[in-house]
Design brief:
Layout: H1 3-10, H2 17-23, H3 38-52, H4 61-69, H5 80-83, H6 102-108, E1 111-112, H7 117-132, E2 139-144, H8 145-148, H9 153-170, E3 176-184, E4 188-196, H10 202-215, E5 225-229, H11 236-239, E6 241-242, E7 245-246, H12 247-258, H13 264-270, E8 281-282, E9 286-288, H14 294-302
Helix pairs in contact: 4-12, 7-13, 9-10
Length: 303
Amino acid sequence: MPRAQRAKLANPRTRDASQKAAKSPFNNVKKRLTGPGAESRSNTREMRAELSQNPTPAETGTGRAIEDKVLSASTNAPSDGQNRRPRAEPKIGESTGAGRSKAERSRLGRRSTALRVSEVTNILAAAVFTAEEHRPLNRHTTIHFDKCGIADPVAALRCYTKFARDWLVTKGAVLSYIWVRESGAGKGEHAHLLMHIPANLSSAFARREPGWRKRIGATRARGAFHSTPVGHSYRHGEVGIQYGEAYSDALAGIVGYLVKGAEPRAVEALQLTRVAFGGELWGKRTGMSENINRAARARALLK
């Protein structure tokens, strides 16, 4: 009796390798789908990947304004001074996290000195999306954490926006926001917070907001909190044009100010027109509400 036949009789569960490969939906070690559902699943993955990416600004007034004011034309390349920010070189043996233990650095999060390309494109796309969803960003608040004695800016921003969101829910409104942290000589660590507050609630919001400052641990200090409308008034985003000026131009200007601390690679890739060093920070450098993030924008495209 041949050796192969004796082996099959000794182990009846063993199958021929060719039959097993034909029936299995996977390819050997790599386990790639080869069955009838491979093409459909591949198309699904490609669609999700495409939707998860930041779409280019829409061909709307806001999108065009951001392209014109925030992003320069390809012929107007940024100068060498814009692409290459002067940074002090660390001395040999000097650690950028000197004075902090490993546990403290882990708690604080990632160290960064600029906004990354993905963060800048995310901010630009979210700003356009808010206008398209009729929730225009109309309130710009600057918070100087050093002045008001806040030790954990990220936690303070999270609590501040939660208080604002919870209050707006009681009024039947929705909060949308984008914030960017910066640090600079003379100003210290601070954040720029863009919010959508319905124009008819702006006065009531301003009356309630000082109480939230106390609840996040901020002490009273001159210039620690400063809020201004985006455009001529808090209603500018709703009416579109005031005093002959478009809201889209005002939004593009303030968004360009928020992303000015982009890394040189982002400046070169996106051709940003306004650039400034954003300082060294630990932890999240930017954040936004869930109703305008990448996932929310992807869901809106499927509707």
